[in-house]
Write a structure and sequence with these properties.
Length: 418
C-alpha cells in the first residue's frame, strides 16, 4: 500500500516532468526582411507517439496567452500552414527539437508565437510563448538623461539609443556618427556618455554597420554650457593708427547664445564699464583709447571673462609724413635765412671800401701780407685797389719779361690819411 501511494505520484511527476517545451528567448527583435530563429526544445513522455507538432500565432483580436491558436505558422501537416508562412519557414524536424526559422520577416509578423504538440495520450502548449517584434526602418536616435526637465548640462550622464519605433535588434553591429564622422568606439545600439561636455555638442546619427542606407536623420545633442573661449578679436587687425576706426568683438562659444555682454577698460589701475554689446567700436582711435580691454559674456549657464588685450594707438603714417614735410620745410627755410644773413654780412663788409672791387682774383696770401704791413701803421686807413691795365702789344712797347700774355696785373698799395 505504501509502495503504491509513493510510487504513483513519482510516476506521475516523471510523466509530467517529461512533458515540456522550452523557448530559448522570450522576446526577440529582428530587422524587417531578415530571418528570425525561434530556438526551442521539447519533451514528451516515453512510450508515447507524437501525432502533430505546430507553431501557431494567435490573431491580434485573440488572447495572446496560448489558449487560442490563431493561424499555423508551421504544421507537421503542411496543408495546415497558413498562406503567409508557406515557403518562409524552416522547421528543425529533429527529435525533441522544435526550432523554427522564419525568413523575410515583416511588420505583419509582429506577435506571439507558441509551440504545441499532440501525442497519443495528450496535448501540450509551451507556456508564455515568444514575443516577436519586427524592427521597421528607419532607425532613430533617442537621447536620455537622468534629468527630467530635458535640458542636458555639462557633466550629465547621457544615453543615446539607436532603435526603431517598436524595438532594437541588439545583435546587429551598429555604427555611430557625430557630425557625419564615424565614432569608432561606438558599435553597440546604445552609446553612453558618462560625463557630457561641450565637446559632445553636435549632430548624431546611427545605423547598421553593414548597411549605410539604414542611417538615421541627425539629432542634435544640445549640451548647454556657459560661455567658453571668450576672446577679443580686433578689426581691422594689425597696428592701430590714430584716426582709424576700430571694432572689438567679444568672441565666444556658448549654448545657449550669450544674452549679456559687458566691456571693460583698465586704465591707470582703474576699471571702467564701457559697453554692453557684443561689439565695441571706436570711431576714430586716439592716444586716449590706449589701455587694457576685456569683455564678459553671460548666458543662462554662467558668465566668463575674456583675457585682457592691450590697445596701443600709433601716430598715423599720414601725420608722420606731414610732420616730416614740415620739418624739412622749416629746415630749408632756416638754411635760406642763414644764407641770406651770411650774404648780407659779407655784402656790407665789402661795401665799406670806397672803390669797386675788380673782377680779378686775388690770392689770400698777398692780401694778408698787405694787411699785416698796414696794421703797424695804425693811423692810416688802407685799401687795396686792383686794376687791370691793358697794355699795347709787345711790339709797340718797351720789352718786358712778361710771360702771361697781354695782361699784367699791377698791385699797388695806397695809404691815405683818415
Ligand atoms: C513556394 O516555393 C515553391 C518553389 O520554391 C513555389 O513553387 C511555390 O509557389 C511557393 N509558394 C508560395 C505560397 O509562395
Ligand atoms: C535544433 O535544430 C536547429 C536547426 O536544425 C539547430 O540549429 C539546433 O542546433 C538544434 N538544437 C538542438 C538543441 O539540437
Ligand atoms: C520579402 O517580403 C516582402 C513583403 O513583405 C516582399 O515584397 C519581398 O519580395 C520579399 N523578399 C524576398 C527575398 O522574398
Ligand atoms: C511584445 O513586446 C512588445 C514590445 O516589444 C510589447 O509592446 C507587447 O505588449 C508584447 N506583447 C505581449 C503579448 O506581451
Ligand atoms: C546640426 O544640423 C543642423 C541641421 O542640419 C545644422 O543647422 C547645424 O549646423 C548642425 N550642427 C552642427 C554642430 O553640425
Ligand atoms: C541682461 O540683459 C537684459 C536685457 O537685454 C537685462 O534685462 C538683464 O538685466 C541683463 N542681465 C544682467 C545679469 O545683466
Ligand atoms: C570678470 O570681470 C568682472 C569685472 O571686473 C569681475 O567682477 C569678475 O569677478 C570677473 N570674473 C571672473 C570669473 O574673473
Amino acid at each position: 500500500m505504501f509502495y503504491i501511494s509513493t510510487l504513483l505520484p513519482m510516476l506521475l511527476s516523471a510523466a509530467v516532468a517529461s512533458l515540456s517545451v522550452s523557448y530559448h528567448s522570450k522576446s526577440i527583435c529582428v530587422l524587417e526582411r531578415s530571418s528570425v530563429d525561434f530556438s526551442c526544445t521539447f519533451d514528451y513522455p516515453l512510450y508515447s507517439t507524437l501525432k502533430t507538432t505546430r507553431w501557431f500565432k494567435p490573431l491580434s483580436n485573440q488572447k495572446q496567452d496560448g489558449t487560442q491558436f490563431g493561424i499555423s505558422v508551421y504544421h507537421s501537416n503542411t496543408a495546415e500552414i497558413h498562406q503567409l508562412y508557406k515557403n518562409r519557414t524552416a522547421y528543425a524536424n529533429q527529435d525533441r527539437n522544435c526550432s523554427l526559422q522564419i525568413h523575410n520577416v515583416s511588420k505583419s509578423d509582429n506577435g506571439m508565437y507558441f509551440f504545441r504538440l499532440e501525442y497519443d495520450h495528450g496535448k501540450y502548449t509551451g507556456p508564455w510563448g515568444i514575443n516577436l517584434s519586427v524592427a521597421v526602418l528607419p532607425f532613430r536616435v533617442t537621447v536620455k538623461t537622468q534629468k527630467k526637465n530635458g535640458h542636458i548640462h555639462e557633466g550629465d550622464y547621457v544615453t543615446l539609443t539607436c532603435g526603431t519605433e517598436n524595438c532594437t535588434p541588439k545583435k546587429e553591429p551598429f555604427a555611430w556618427f557625430k557630425n557625419q564622422r564615424l565614432i569608432p568606439e561606438a558599435t553597440d545600439n546604445v552609446f553612453h556618455i558618462a560625463s557630457v561636455s561641450h565637446h559632445d555638442f553636435g549632430n548624431y546619427s546611427c545605423g547598421l554597420k553593414t548597411s549605410s542606407s539604414t542611417s538615421t536623420d541627425e539629432i542634435l545633442l544640445d549640451v548647454k554650457y556657459m560661455p567658453k573661449n571668450v576672446e577679443i578679436a580686433v578689426f581691422p587687425s594689425g597696428k592701430i593708427r590714430e584716426g582709424n576706426s576700430l571694432t572689438l568683438i567679444c568672441m565666444n562659444n556658448a549654448n545657449p547664445s550669450v544674452t549679456n555682454y559687458s566691456w571693460f577698460l583698465i586704465k591707470e589701475a582703474k576699471v571702467s564699464h564701457i559697453g554692453l554689446d557684443r561689439e565695441f567700436s571706436i570711431k576714430s582711435a586716439s592716444q586716449k583709447d590706449n589701455g587694457q580691454y576685456f569683455c564678459t559674456a553671460k548666458n543662462d549657464m554662467g558668465s566668463q571673462n575674456s583675457s585682457v588685450i592691450a590697445l596701443n594707438v600709433e601716430v598715423s603714417v599720414h601725420q608722420n609724413v606731414l610732420l616730416t614735410a614740415t620739418a624739412v620745410f622749416l629746415f630749408l627755410m632756416a638754411v635760406v635765412i642763414f644764407g641770406l644773413i651770411i650774404w648780407r654780412i659779407q655784402f656790407t663788409s665789402k661795401k665799406h671800401p670806397t672803390e669797386q672791387t675788380p673782377a680779378a682774383t686775388v690770392t689770400e696770401e698777398i692780401y694778408e701780407n698787405l694787411r699785416k704791413s698796414q696794421e703797424s701803421e695804425g693811423k692810416y686807413s688802407t685799401s687795396v685797389v686792383y686794376a687791370d691795365l691793358s697794355l699795347p702789344p709787345a711790339s709797340d712797347r718797351p720789352s718786358c719779361n712778361s710771360q702771361a700774355g697781354d695782361t699784367v696785373i699791377i698791385y699797388s698799395l695806397l695809404s691815405y690819411n683818415k
